[in-house]
Amino acid sequence: MVDIFDKVRGNNGPLGQYSKFGHGYFFFPKLEGDISNKMTFRGKEVLVWSLNNYLGLANHPEIRKVDAEAGLKYGLGNPMGSRMMSGNTALHEELEDSLADYVGKEAGILLNFGYQGMASAIDALVNRNDVIVYDSESHACIMDGMRMHMGKRFVFAHNNIEQLDIMLTRAAKITAKTGGGIMVLTEGVFGMAGDQGKLKEIVALKETHNFRLFVDDAHGIGTMGPEGRGTGYEQGVQEGIDIYFGTFAKSFALIGGFIAADEDVVRFLNYTMRSQIYAKSLPYPIVVGAMKRLEMMKTQPEHKAKLWEIATALQSGLRNEGFDIGVTNSPVTPVYMKGGVPMATKLVVDLRENYGIFCSIVVYPVVPKGTLMLRLIPTAMHTLEDVKYTIDTFKVIKKKLEEGVYAGDDFVAQ
Question: Is residue 14 reached through a cis peptide bond, with omega within 30 degrees of 0 on the bond before it?
């Protein structure tokens, strides 16, 4: 018999294998100070491109004031208990109604955590007779939700509508025997590559296939469409999205999330979604804070406008200088370069220590072997001067990369 702990000692997973030299620097780094375009990393000021604070609301004076007042008034313990048992309030219901209206749906349900809620909703909505069809680059929360699904599932290549069509046909053959239904899962904006899901084309398939569409729009809400109402509005197909998911962890600069759908679907989730039934209700300050953020999204368009000013300047500037930023059509800005993991560590250390730029680094298996990706998240808090400095620095870094400055199989530890 094997001791379970024997399987985990010395085995930290594909990324954890580098933890001895990377913990606290490449993984689990500590950014300190007020959330802004510039923060402190290991005692030095750095220009930060790795926070999903798209609209710059995290440290906005109006937000800080409302958050502080709500915390003082209610405390973080109120209400106590799950929504079903003792944690429901008029404010929770008001926020759900406002969010549902914002994204054009009949009703909404709050989620304590977006990741947890997304996985739990998938578990609640499908059973062993149903078939899931999903995009190959779906977020981990979708993948974990499907792990609980005891029925069939089919994957289609990322944004490949022809393959989706084929998979829907296969799924229909199965559900004709089981008496189940079909759910298609995809994202509004894919958080790594930054490209939008082909929602318009997917919705069009409803003319020839019978399925329901569940969209994770974590990166789309607040950034896409009029007043930030999401990628479905951006593409003019919000009505074709049957179940809409939005998080508070990005544009809202908060924690939690919501799902919006037809009233009977939301009522079903209220009574079957285990992550909400068996978890404490969101504290009042989170609810009040989310209401304030939603109000600002609807009434202060300058935040979204500034985000897109920065994103457009960054992406056009990088493209003009010959950088490969893929097919992004959202604020998410990936910069692809040639190099493996050891090379990536040296490049990142150079960026942080010698140029004062902090951005996320992505390597295999998220991107193909021999490729490294620097992932930049522009926000309304950045300036055009930040953009110019970053592009100028990336030109230097790219030249060093091509000249072999970062070559070798040795890792750089900090």
Answer: no
Q: Could you tell me how many residues make up the chain?
A: 414
Number of domains in the chain: 2
Task: Give whole-number Cα distances, 314 to 1, 159, 309, 334, 353, in Å.
Answer: 56, 25, 9, 11, 22
- Average of pLDDT values for 245-273? 97
What's the CA gap between 391 and 372, in Å, rounded? 17
* Cis previous bond, 61, omega within 30: no
Closest to 128 (Cα-Cα) out of 146, 103, 106 = 146
The pLDDT value recorded for residue 75 is 96
In this structure, are 271 and 218 located in the same domain? yes
Which residues have C-beta within 8 Å of that of residue 143, sequence separation ≥ 6?
none
Which residue, chain included where needed, has tokens 């994202």?
187
| Helices 61-74/284-299 angle, 10° precision | 150
Q: How far apart are CA 273 and CA 196, in angstroms?
A: 28
Give the range of the structural domain holding residue 8, as residue numbers without chain letter: 4-54+302-402
Supply the mean pLDDT for the chain. 94
- Do 250 and 204 share a domain, yes or no? yes
Q: Are residues 8 and 108 in the same domain?
A: no
3-class SS of residue 320: helix
Helix, strand or coil, per DSSP, at residue 50: coil
Per-residue confidence band for 412, with pLDDT thresholds at 50, 70 and 90:
low
Structural contact between residues 224 and 233, judged by C-beta atoms closer than 8 angstroms = yes
Q: Residue 215 sits in a domain of what CATH number?
A: 3.40.640.10
Contact 107, 261 (CB under 8 A): yes
